[in-house]
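Colleagues,

For the teaching module next term, I've prepared a clean inverse folding example: a structure given as tokens, and then the sequence designed for it. I'd like students to try predicting residues themselves before seeing the answer, so please don't circulate the second half yet.
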């Protein structure tokens, strides 16, 4: 069974490119332009979440760092690796404060994307 990656990214071009690349590698991908999908996370059961840091629609003032902190603080979702994605220069610090398992600094290449995915969930199923 393929590893399932939840991609939450509001930039359609980035979301589509990441989704295409991951599916091409053999991962199952669920993508969303907003974080509302996290309300039904127990239905999707992702193996990893790629989370854009600049999402503010799920909770009134929550960004990716805050959403990651909530996911990591909840026993039902704390085991799911969360990778924050952002172009800000201090993304490493933001990810650390959000208890994220890692981060990707935009722009990133596919080698970096695949490496961080494989580090946390392994290669896609054969």
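(Answer key — instructors only)
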């Amino acid at each position: 069974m393929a590893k399932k990656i939840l991609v939450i990214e509001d930039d359609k071009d980035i979301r589509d490119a990441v989704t295409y690349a991951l599916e091409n590698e053999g991962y199952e991908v669920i993508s969303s332009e907003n974080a509302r999908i996290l309300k039904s996370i127990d239905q999707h059961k992702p193996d990893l979440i790629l989370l854009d840091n600049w999402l503010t629609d799920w909770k009134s003032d929550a960004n990716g760092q805050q959403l990651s902190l909530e996911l990591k603080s909840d026993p039902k979702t704390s085991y799911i690796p969360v990778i924050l994605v952002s172009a800000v220069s201090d993304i490493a610090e933001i990810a650390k404060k959000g208890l994220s398992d890692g981060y990707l600094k935009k722009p990133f290449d596919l080698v970096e994307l695949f490496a961080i995915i494989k580090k946390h969930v392994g290669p896609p199923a054969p």
